[in-house]
Amino acid sequence: MSIKNFLIIILTVILFNVSWVYPNGLDRSRSAGEAPKDIKKAEIEKIADGIFRIGTVILDKNKGEIKIPARVNQREGVIELVLCTTWGRTHESIFTTETYPVYLQTALLLLGLKYGAPAEFPGAELSVKADTAEIFVETDNDSDNRWRIEDFVYDNQTKKPMAHIGWIYTGSQFFDGFFYAQEEGSIITTYHDPNTMFDNPLPEGTDDTVCYVNIDLISRLGDNVTIIFCKKPDAK
User: What CA–CA distance (Å, rounded) separates 129 from 131?
Assistant: First the structure.
């Protein structure tokens, strides 16, 4: 089976199981808007050998990385997210993206990442076995202008940028075929979130007052950036 056909099968299974009926207990009161409902319109496009586009997601099997476009959203203040969608909790996220989480999920699975159970509730302690990813921010499509995404987070306890970690791939949640990350828009969180795709493994993840925007580094960026997800070498 070709990788393109394999991509189509995985994406079809995910889309077939995505429901747009809100499950009980989903709180969208802090979200910026309604999630798009047109996710079935995207096509899987082969750009080159081992490189595919799914909506705005670029999957490079050769390099073992995934790229999505994003924008600087918050340049100061306390945060709970590093990245969310434009319809997510934009009032507390450093970066935003118009990328559909369901497409990102498809690419992550094809990259070989295995997700684990998310936090039971916001701020709950996180103890899960799952693959981890190194995540980067790049400007001008230039690898010389690339930073670890943690560098943009200021830890108010240690009084320095967040330690370089492996972000835990929790993969959000499905409930009766409903994909929470697609609706709520949480992709990378510093404060433990049961609906996010990537969570913070540090103890500070139980405290929503610790993480701030690193204003010294964010000032070096324009508006547009690229977020890059790489499977950690020790993730099997």
Answer: 7
Segments forming the whole domain that contains residue 8: 3-231
Whether 20 maps to a domain, the answer reads yes
Q: Is residue 236 part of a domain?
A: no
The per-residue pLDDT string of the chain (236 residues; one tens digit each, 9 = 90 and over) reads 555 555 544 554 454 444 433 444 455 555 666 777 666 656 789 999 999 999 999 999 999 999 999 999 999 999 999 999 999 999 999 999 999 999 999 999 999 999 887 787 777 777 777 899 999 999 976 667 899 999 999 999 999 999 999 999 999 987 777 789 999 999 999 999 999 999 999 999 999 999 999 999 999 999 999 999 998 776 44
Tally of structural domains, the chain: 1
Strands (E), 31-162: 44-48, 51-54, 57-60, 65-72, 81-85, 93-97, 132-139, 142-148, 153-155, 160-161
